[in-house]
Amino acid sequence: MGSVREIERKYSVDPGFVLPRLADVPGVATARTRRAVTLEAVYYDTDDLRLARNRITLRRRTGGADAGWHLKLPVAPGTRDEIQRPLGGAGPVPEELADLVTVHLRGAELRPVARLVTLRTARRLRDAAGADLAEVVDDQVSATTMGSTMVAQKWREIEVELGSGAPGLLDDVEQVLLSAGADRSASSSKLAQVLGPALDAAAGPDVPAPPRKLRRGTPAGTVIRAYLIAQVEALLATDPRVRLDAPDAVHRMRVACRRTRSTLRTFAPFFPADLVSHLDGELRDLAGALSAARDAEVQIAYFAERLDAVPADLVRGDVTTAISGHLAADQTAAREQALAMLRSERYLTLVRDLLALVNSPLVGKARKPAEKALPGLLREADRRLSRKVSRAAALPVGTERDELLHSARKQAKRLRYAAEAVGPVYGASAAAFARLAEEMQELLGTHQDATIARDLLQDWGVRAQVAGESSAFTLGVLYGLEEHRARTAERDFFDLWPAASARHHRRWFG
């Protein structure tokens, strides 16, 4: 299955619009017209247009060089990832593509909603070396909705899609087009234009837009919900990319889970207690399913780098194969576990509950002004961290202290996320405190990572020794290095703590 990043801008033009001379655009040497082609596309969506409402398009297109199934996922305004699938027969939507939009379908069926026939004339903008900088297409569109009510439309539009050119080229081309009488399109896609009133009458996107301005007098629940909206939006956006095994997708989804869970814990008084408890457990299990896949991926890269730094005379046996053999199997099993979770009804129920959370009206303490309701919850989160650190400091080096430092790391992370959540209200003070909490989290995270790596190496080393493998020696050397890394991070954290726990960092929340 192919995937391309599509960066484009769309313009509406009158039927008599004359495309200006594009070879005059800075950096463009030639603007050659290609032979006109006719494209026919059938678009698929649910009865309530769940994909279109979330700026997703799924179509089967014939004609042109890229005939086939296309799924377009939004990345940012004007930027989408296009997933391509071979044309095949005229049957149902390919399972691979339907799977990628499961998080939005949530059990709803896909059906044809619109048919578009486009007469396209393209111009390739090339530099002096012959590189394709961008493509400008002139589309004459005939569109018809499909279903109980059929509405026909015709229009003309110009699309500019960036190739190898710098992003600024789009601005240069836009200036030429606007000067010639074009207007920025009010529709995000051809499908949005043909659906028109039906899309306007449908419910909005799954995740509501956050308020533009948050102040200290804003209801506290509105402030926290704005942060939760961003996390739920991130979770939905990364879902198809996790299924595609895209780089860093698992990590980003896991972070969204942890931020959401942490925020619900810290600001629990703003939400129904039973809902917080339910979501806490579900998000914990989802993050856990994702963590196994992410951890194996990170550990394979980390151990390879660590082993490269070991002097050659201390490397005995095929240590690389020994380590990768243990972790590769874990990675494969972990990915299957993560995908099984994403394809479960339990996961879809969690998504529905999260969407209900960010779309529900505020109740109780959530309606109090932010300046009155937020400081106390921040102070409590801060006190929890202090208590955990104090308890750990009183213990000798060992397993119990390691476990308490791990707990302190999670609390430092919650404190960081809490500061991020209230950042729009408290500005630079909250941002500085979030960075301080992140610094503490990073040191404790290094300690935890080294502790996990050390325990893995001990287990593998014992197995190798029992099997009489020479790699046991080098695994022992790596064990010692990880023990040293853990204790160094622990020392650095306790060195930082007196300054990090100073009162002046906390004046902004009392």
UniProtKB/TrEMBL annotation:
Pfam families: CHAD (PF05235), CYTH (PF01928). Residues 4-201 form the CYTH domain. Residues 217-502 form the CHAD domain. PROSITE patterns: CHAD, CYTH. InterPro entries: CHAD_dom, CHAD_dom_sf, CYTH-like_dom_sf, CYTH_domain. SUPFAM superfamilies: CYTH-like phosphatases. It comes from the Bacteria. This is Metal-binding protein.
